[in-house]
Amino acid sequence: MSYSKKTWTNRQSEYPNRRRLTATGTAEVYEVAREEGLVVEEGDPFDQASMNDLENRVAGAFGELVEGTIKVGKAVVADSADAVAWGNISGKPTTFPPQAHTHTKANITDFPTSMPPTAHTHTKANITDFPTSLPANGGNADTVDGFHIAGIGTSAPGSLANNALFFVYE
Questions:
Q1: Is 110 left (phi over 0), alpha (psi -120 to 50) or beta?
Q2: pLDDT digit string (tens) for 16-38?
Q3: What does R_g of the chain's alpha carbons equal in angstroms?
Q4: What is the value of pTM for the model shown?
Q5: DSSP letter string over the chain?
Q6: Nearest to 148 by CA among 165, 123, 162, 169
Q7: What is the rounded average pLDDT of the residues 128-137?
């Protein structure tokens, strides 16, 4: 049952507030009756039947709202919508340019668990802790940390595999 709007009418009369008082025989008790003169419009009664009719029509309309779909010309506010065609959305931008922003590692769902190094090079200027001078320890190019390289070979002694580069310190 859909809600049907009713146009209510007021009672209209020549003397709307005039009443006739008739003594009942009991002290200060009177019967009151309308004495309005000419009644132009009866109007809708304010009674049980009228109020129940109103309640039933409103309840029926709310029942439809909860149980079904009501088509509206224009929604002002909606908590949700099942689907709206892209062409029916007004006021949308024509482009969606990216804006500068940042993310924490936790915001990135496919962040790798490890980052293996890749082949690359650096210039001296890119190395922030590059020494300004080498220590003067009296050594030469074949002295490392006070050790002297006695020999470089490609055949490893003992159980090491052939063609391995090894150093012998003295």
A1: alpha
A2: 899 999 999 999 999 999 999 99
A3: 49
A4: 0.30
A5: -----------EESSTT-EEEEE-SSTT-EEEEE---SEEE-----SHHHHHHHHHHHHHHHHHHHHS----S--S--S--S---GGG--S--S----------GGG-TT--S----------GGG-TT--SS----S--TTEETTEEEEEEEEE-STTSPEEEEEEEE-
A6: 169
A7: 72
